[in-house]
Amino acid sequence: VDVIQDSSAVYIVQDFCAGGELFDRIVQSGGGFNERNAASLIGQVLSGIAHCHHDVGIAHRDLKPDNILFKTSEVDSEIMIIDFGLAESVSTTMAIDQDQKDAPCDHLELQCGTPMFMAPEVFQKNYSRSCDLWSIGVITYMLLCGYPPYNGENEEEIISKVTRARPVKFPPEDWDHISDEALAFIKSLLQKDPSKRPSALEALKDPWFGVQAVSTHEHNKVKSRLGTYHSMNKLKKMASMVIVGEGIVTETKEMRSMFSKIDINKTGHITRDQLHAALLDGGDSMGNLKNEDFDAIFGQLDQDGEGTIDYEEFLAAIMKPAVRQNHDNIRIAFDYFDTNKDGAISVKELEAIVGSTAQARLLIGEVDVDQDQTISFSEFKAMMLKPDF
Fold first, then answer.
1. Distance between the two ends of the chain, CA-based, in angstroms?
2. Residue 344: in which H helix or E strand, if any?
3. Is Disulfide bond included in the keywords of this UniProt record (predicted)?
4. Given 13, 173, 239, 255, which residue has the most CB atoms within 10 angstroms?
5. Which string of DSSP letters, residue by residue, matches 262-306?
């Protein structure tokens, strides 16, 4: 989350995960997880690994229940993937279609990981990021029945079974109550030939996860907050992005759920058509939000002009008003713009951010009550506290 250094030490601030390890929950569950909860959890793991593989450009290489933590003790708590000590760089530009998942630029050789969760090809020291998908298949199997698909009395026996990778078995006494979709999903990941496994993005589209629609309540909330966002001046929108970028906004399950449901392709980005369709799903119109207003909002959020918005951009638009109006958050946003820390935001400081003197003057003019060509903290705070309709 943050790194702080003084004259004698470096302090690393990390997220606090009070819910413990997935391994402990598997042990506590006795005979396996509820299938719905298992699907939700594996969906989160896949989303995280898809981000690693295709956005950040790393393969984890040691996915196992011990390296998946719960943020809270709740049954449906969000998870965090930890321990990237064995992670290795892979290409982010590599095509993700079936024919190119294992291109030469994704060639890994170090034999590493935990044998029970390692893919067969890792023992051959010739593998790709697809090894993470095998590991997720093993974890999914364990979640649903309480034991691994390839087990043994000792490490040597486990390695022997994993490297042979015979078709996974589902004993009826433990699997009769599990859906065919779950079994098919596991089989797709536990394929000995890595080129036949889906990518993380493809796996997220598996029928096992089903199609989740945006509820009417969520639809109305997103539409209302997008309308509010549209009515803000540009500086307030910029401040919202600063607040999100600084990690101040506490992510809620509701926010993540809304984003995930709209992001039907599970790419980590929402297209204009996806957001528009999600808003229309709750009714036959956009309500008070006109199509031209929607296009303007989407354009404002799509800062890189690629035709999509990411999760942080989404949060900036739908965060609760109370977050923007919090005094500490206002101060953090103000200090971001006040780069020379003289207590006022100048034209020069905004110009460095927006790239235009004229635009900087316009932004200041909308907030500069005393017309001194700068924005004081009190003026900035008044802007942030002003209701938007």
1. 34
2. strand 344-346
3. no
4. 239
5. H-TT-SSEEEHHHHHHHHHHTSSS-TTS-HHHHHHHHHHH-TTSS
Q: Indicate the CATH number for domain 16-209.
A: 1.10.510.10
Instruction: Give the amino acid at 255.
Output: M
Provide CATH 1.10.510.10 ranges for the chain: 16-209
CA-CA distances (angstroms) from residue 74 to 18, 43, 253, 259, 378? Answer: 10, 17, 12, 21, 41
Output the six-digit token pair for 311: 């999760």
Residues 6+ apart with CB under 8 A from 236: 324, 383, 384, 388
Residues of the chain with CATH 1.10.238.10: 216-385
User: What is 27-47 written as a DSSP string?
Assistant: HHHSS---HHHHHHHHHHHHH
Q: Rounded to whole angstroms, what are the CA distances from 98 to 102, 127, 137, 199, 258?
A: 9, 16, 18, 8, 29
Distance CA 229, CA 343 (A): 27
Please give the pLDDT value at position 312.
86
Report whether 275 contacts 297 (CB < 8 A).
no
Q: Enumerate helices (H) and strands (E) in the chain, giving the number of each.
A: 18, 10
**Which residue reads 């809620």 in tokens?**
252
Residue 340 per-residue DSSP state? T
Question: Domain 216-385 classified CATH 1.10.760.10?
Answer: no
Residue 66 CA to residue 81 CA, distance in Å, equals 9
- Digitized pLDDT (tens) for each residue of the chain, 389 residues in all: 678 899 999 998 888 889 999 998 888 877 678 888 899 899 999 999 999 998 889 999 999 999 999 988 888 788 999 999 999 999 865 444 444 444 435 789 999 999 999 999 999 999 999 999 999 999 999 999 999 999 999 999 999 999 999 999 999 999 988 999 999 999 999 999 999 999 999 999 898 987 555 666 667 778 788 888 888 999 999 999 999 887 666 656 677 778 888 887 777 889 988 888 777 655 444 455 566 777 888 888 887 778 899 888 898 888 888 889 999 999 999 999 999 999 999 999 999 999 999 999 999 999 999 999 999 999 999 999 998 86
Q: How far, in Å, are 30, 103, 159, 274, 277 from residue 216 at the CA level? A: 37, 43, 50, 16, 13
Residues forming the active site: 62
Residue 229's nearest CA partner among 156, 299, 174 is: 299
Cβ contacts of 180 within 8 Å, gap of 6 or more: none
